[in-house]
Amino acid sequence: MNILHTITVKQVLTVSTKEALQSRYEDQKFQLKREHEQLQFEWKKIERAKKYPSQKLSQHFQKEMEEKLEKIKLLDFQLEQLAILPIGSELKEKEVQGMIDIQVGDNWDEAALSKTIIVEDGVIKEIR
């Protein structure tokens, strides 16, 4: 019998993947800073026009800007952790759905819990 199962995909940290992750995090951080600045600009622009109630407007923009700042803090933390991680570490990248074949007599714990794909520099190195 075949069943659907969640399989964990882990990325082995190499010099190239570490650089790619760092670049991606920094790009995301830059984009969030731009979005934060754009929100500030839009808020000031709408506030000057005085067409909308300022209390609700302020709350909305402050909430949006705080969310951007929280995401920036998270990216800063991820960059710090990435700098600490040694080459060869395994990072959980994502989870995918896959089919597994089970038979009467199979060990359920082993069949259901042990599926992991290890990827190094874009190449599958191991299936556990």
TrEMBL record:
<protein>
    <submittedName>
        <fullName>YlqD protein</fullName>
    </submittedName>
</protein>
<dbReference type="Pfam" id="PF11068">
    <property type="entry name" value="YlqD"/>
</dbReference>
<dbReference type="InterPro" id="IPR021297">
    <property type="entry name" value="YlqD"/>
</dbReference>
